[in-house]
Amino acid sequence: MRGFQSLSPKEFDEIEAKVRAKLGEKLKTHRVLREEVLDLIQQEATLLKYPIKDNELCAFVCKKKDRVFVYINTFIPREKQVFAAAHELYHIWYDQDKLNQTEILNDQVLENETDDVNELKANLFAAILLVPTEVLINEIISRGIQKDSLKIEDIVRLMALFYVPFKTIVRRLFEIQFIDNRKMREFLTVPDRDPQAGVMLVRKRLQLNDSTQDRTNEVYFEKLVENAISAYGKEIINERKLRNILSIVNESPETMQIIESGGEDEWDSIMGDYDGDD
Description:
A five-stranded mixed beta sheet has the order 4-2-3-1-5. By secondary structure, the chain is α+β, with helices and mostly antiparallel strands. The chain has helices at residues 9-25, 36-44, 78-94, 107-110, 117-130, 133-142, 152-162, 166-175, 181-188, 198-206, 224-233, 239-248, 264-273, and strands spanning 46-50, 57-64, 67-73, 105-106, 220-221.
């Protein structure tokens, strides 16, 4: 059985075929993508990353004036950021209607707690894209992982390798028929976000030093800095406006080496640009 939630075996095969086709097209077969999915996003859309302190809010994709935008919440753990990005790639490539809806991708949807077939397909697409069948099987063999002695520690190590949530690895092990439905459901009950139990506790004991659980809180607006610097160089905007724009991404003209730090003279220059209006 290779079913995935409410998706049929036929739908599963169709999604896997789509993943194989895309990986082949992008020359990325038989490898672990991890954060390379963000590069794929940038080939198709304008990427926006900003931290919003909400564990439920993960991402969204939308289309405005023929431009596609993808937003990723960098407050959530890095592995969930990666999975959310891969999820949105499905909508960009295979579900164009979704681009006109601008719906927030929340944690419940990523956990497959939805009846929306297209969202389930996007989750499956993301899971196979990030954890390709052949690569997963090879890792199982090379690590000597056995069906009858599979432990949480084995899954946590695979989770760290592929940069995906714990439950994603569990479901992928079921999908490649390495574990049965009973075992899958047993592992899915393991707490995966409690810092004092389950997955997080196992990570501590294994002393894993990967960055999958980092809340990066990164601020990134694609081409914002580049365009602002260009506009300043062409005298389209003044220094004060440049500072305001760069402050959005926690930078300044000095950190970008556009203007040398000049103390009092620098302040006079800024105030000279100020005309009393925002």
